Amino acid sequence: MVRLRSDSNRLSFSPPLSPPLFPQVVSGASSPGDILAYAAVFDGHGGNACAEWLSTNFQKYLDKAWTAGNAPEAAVTKAFRAADKRILEPKSGFLGLVGERGIGGSKCGATAAVVVLFKSQEGTTSILTANAGDARVLLIRGNKALQLTEDHVPDDEDERIRIESKNPNPNMPLVRYIGGTWRVGGLLALSRAFGDAYLKGTGQFEGVPAGSDGYSSGFGVVAEPYTQLNTLTDEDTYILVSSDGIFANEERGGGGGLPNEEVAVMVGKMSKAGKSCEEMARAIVSAAVDAGTTDDVTVALLKLQ
User: Fold this and answer.
1) Does residue 118 sit within a domain?
2) Each residue of 26-42: pLDDT tens digit?
3) Is the pTM value of this prediction over 0.90?
4) Within-domain flag for 166
């Protein structure tokens, strides 16, 4: 793992990862349904408090929701919802009456990409991925990169339709083109994220007087994750978990970056050359910077076999 980052990005791993993972996972040492490995990247905005809290606490919510591998997608979704609810809680006492909601304040938030490896009932190794926002997970299978996450941005038509379907004021679109990019409420260039209390309901002392913005039910920003469940194969060699800074993102002000396919080619070449995960991650970060990214970059590379 490696990062060129601001203090807003955080990595989270359990157990400590000492590659390769895959032979260890399929050895039969664990019971079906047990979580074998967990990795996550939390990419903060509006401060580092939300990402920092998630890196420390999210796994607790996942462990609580996990029930021996039954309905794993439902479990990780439950964990996302519960963690976001906690993040958005008003402060206790007097500060809860007059202060901002949200850990780190009303404008603090974080995207997330989460990977969970667990042993299935059939004895194979399953990979569960979940994300909210534009952090990504890539599975390197052969010489190809399979994106196991979905970018949640307001310029995605499905996301725009989802948000506008809840708009109580059709005369004022929730998704607007401001500052060269599409933004929710004209403010946030993401459609899903943890935190961001000021876009999740008004009248909660986030600096937006109740009703003054023409809305009454928030802006459609949610922490509901996109999830995917797959079975690892003998062709799967690496998992890459990263913030959006590694990828080209000119339309939202992130500058240049790497396409998924180029990442897969780089990983394949460096793996054949005997490079370590640390060396490979550093090379990927450097390549993204050379390609013109203007965003911070966090990369975690997990070797499966």
Assistant:
1) yes
2) 344 467 788 889 999 99
3) no
4) no
